[in-house]
Every structure is written in C-alpha cells, then in structure tokens.
Design brief:
By secondary structure, the chain is mostly beta strands. It is built from one helix and eleven strands. The chain has one helix at about 1-20; strands at about 25-40, 45, 50-60, 65-80, 85, 90-110, 125-145, 150-155, 165-175, 180-185, 195-205. It has an eight-stranded antiparallel beta barrel.
C-alpha cells in the first residue's frame, strides 16, 4: 500500500513539474468601473450604481498549454441604489448603499486557442477566467440623496457589527486584448439582520500582464 502511495505522489509531482515548466509567472494591474447592486429579498426597487475598482494580479501564464491560473487582490467600491422616488415635498429622493471591499479571487484561466510561436503575450488570445472569490468588507454607508432646489446628502456609516466582514462567491470573466468583463455572484449575506442580501458586481477593466 505504501509503495502505491509513493508511486502516486511521484506521478503527481512529475505532472506538476512538467506543467510548471510550460508556464511562466507574470504580474499586472487592473482598473476600471464597477456596476454593482445587491439582491435583497422582498425588495424589487434596487438597481445598479457605478463606481470603480483597481488592483493587482499574479498569474501563471502558459507557454504551450491552454490552462493557466491567476490570483488577484482588488479594491472594489460596491453597493446598490434604489430607483428614484418623490417625497411629500415633491423632491426627488434616492437611497444608496456604498460599500468598500478587498476582493481576492483565485481563477482558472482557460485560453480559447493555443499559443502561436509569434504570440508575444496573452493579449491577442481570448481568455475565460472562472473561480471562487473571497471578499473582506472594510466598511460602508447608507446615503440618502434629496434633489430639489438644492441637492442634499445624508450619510450614515454602517454600524460596526451590522454587516458581515467576510463575503464569498463565484467569479467569471471574459478577456480579449487588454479589456476584461467580469461578473461576481455573491453568496454571503451583506447584512447580519433583515432580509437576505447578496452582492452582484460587474466590472469592465483594463488589464495587462507582464
């Protein structure tokens, strides 16, 4: 039995080593707008709000195969917005939830064609990225916007203990040239109390790899 285990781990090591030989490490930056909302049970008035994200990526880039991997660290401004409404004074009101996350996705990169000898980098190869993501909420606020003769904002920071610090979900992205469209489906509750609330984020980023 021990010899079989030894043979298995030796074979696994050889496969890993041969895969690593056909790869190179790279790094890069990504930055762009986010379009985020929160799916809140029993609330159909939420819509997307626009903000931005930016971060770094470390990737295992294939030289000959079509499979790679990537670890990102991204600062992401997220949240949701309500649809516009009117109060008793006839002013336009809108409620927004603004949140700040450090997101860390671990993605499997699938290159949709094999590398050619004249490919200098991955930019001209369509790529699919998919994998899990863990997020760390570093705070948020509720913002009430009132537009009448004057524009007013009432900002109420989230109370400590009212929201979950840890978020998790699944991320999928399509990349071509230096442009990437990414969607993250949150699976953890944003708030500890009340109806179920999950993050949903679309980002369109400029992304390079060295």
């Amino acid at each position: 039995m021990r010899s079989k285990k030894t043979l298995f781990f030796l074979l696994l090591f050889c496969l890993t080593a041969s895969s690593a030989i056909a790869q190179r490490f790279g790094g890069g930056l990504l930055v762009g707008p986010t379009f985020s909302t929160m799916n809140i049970s029993g609330n159909d008035s939420t819509t997307f709000r626009t903000d931005f994200c930016g971060g770094v990526r470390i990737a295992l880039v294939p030289k000959r195969s079509i499979i790679g991997a990537e670890l990102d660290v991204i600062y992401s401004r997220q949240g949701t917005s309500s649809k516009k409404g009117l109060n008793l004074d006839g002013n336009t009101i809108r409620n927004k939830e603004k949140s700040h996350y450090i997101n860390v996705p671990l993605l499997l990169n699938i290159y949709l064609r094999k590398w050619n000898e004249d490919d200098e980098d991955e930019s001209m190869i369509p790529r699919l990225r998919i994998g899990p993501q863990i997020g760390f909420c570093i705070g948020g606020s509720n913002v009430l916007e009132v537009k009448g003769k004057k524009k007013q904002q009432i900002i109420l920071p989230w109370e400590p203990g009212s929201f979950n610090r840890i978020d998790y979900g699944l991320t999928a992205a399509l990349s071509y040239w230096f442009i990437e469209v990414r969607y993250t489906f949150g699976m953890a509750n944003v708030f500890k109390e009340g109806e179920k609330s999950t993050n949903h984020v679309i980002s369109v980023t400029w992304s390079d790899i060295w």
